[in-house]
Amino acid sequence: METHGRDTTHRSKETRRGIVLFPMPFQGHINPMFQLANILHTQGFKITIIHGQYNSPNHSNYPHFSFRSINDRFSEVIHMLPTNRDVSFYLKYLNRSCADPFRDCLTKLLDEEPVACLISDSMFYFTQTVADDLKLPRMVLRTSSIGCTVAYSVLPWFSKEGCFNLTKQGRFNIVAEP
Fold first, then answer.
1. Whole-number average pLDDT of the chain
2. CA-closest candidate to residue 118, choices 31, 11, 178, 36
3. How much is the pLDDT for 102?
4. Nearest 10 degrees: CA dihedral of 36, 22, 59, 144?
5. Does the pLDDT value for residue 1 go beyond 50?
6. Which pLDDT tens digit goes with each residue over 34-87?
7. Is 29 labeled as catalytic in the residue annotation?
8. From the candidates 4, 51, 72, 121, which is the catalytic residue?
9. Do residues 135 and 128 touch, judged by C-beta distance below 8 A?
10. Which 8-state DSSP code applies to residue 62?
């Protein structure tokens, strides 16, 4: 078995059971990720949480987990929230600002201990590239509601039917049905 470029065939089952989790720094994302981490921990997995500085979890509430903090630079844009309500701006910003610190943190962690897989928030799309580069299996936790899941599933149909008119500026207008 090959894991993140290292041969793990001679390691004990217990040492291969480390899992790294990386939640988005928002309550609707942190809470489900920690619920999953607790479930995995009760099944014998060693849990390491990589998190940004913004909305950092209280480590003392989870003494059975290991924590690694990275600089997410979110404090540089949080002041814009009252005037910029574009959620995609903040998601893109976090994906850009966390990519290098996350890669560095995960690489260092892999050098220190064996990791079976990475579980990241679905909104951290850059983590797939990092996991692929490190040859580390990755799973995604999607924390959205069933309503969002249904909406996402019908977006391709609406697009195919021409319901969105994308402009060069990247904004869209919804085309009215005849």
1. 81
2. 36
3. 95
4. -50
5. no
6. 999 999 999 999 999 999 888 788 899 999 999 999 988 877 777 777 677 777
7. yes
8. 121
9. no
10. -
Rounded Cα distance, 63 and 26, in Å: 21
Comparing C-alpha atoms, which of 129, 122, 75 is closest to residue 102?
129
**pLDDT at position 168, please?**
52
The single-letter DSSP state of residue 172 is: E
Q: Could you say which of 4, 29, 51, 72 is catalytic?
A: 29
Instruction: State the pTM of this model.
Output: 0.73
Q: Please name the residue that has the structure tokens 């999607």.
A: 142
Confidence band for 128, pLDDT divided at 50, 70 and 90: very high
Type and span of the H or E element at 98: helix 87-112
Separation between Cα atoms, residue 52 and residue 99, nearest integer Å:
11
Residue closest to 124 by CA, chosen among 22, 44, 41: 22
Long-range contacts of 139-142 (CB under 8 A, 24+ apart): 141/21, 141/23, 141/32, 141/33, 141/36
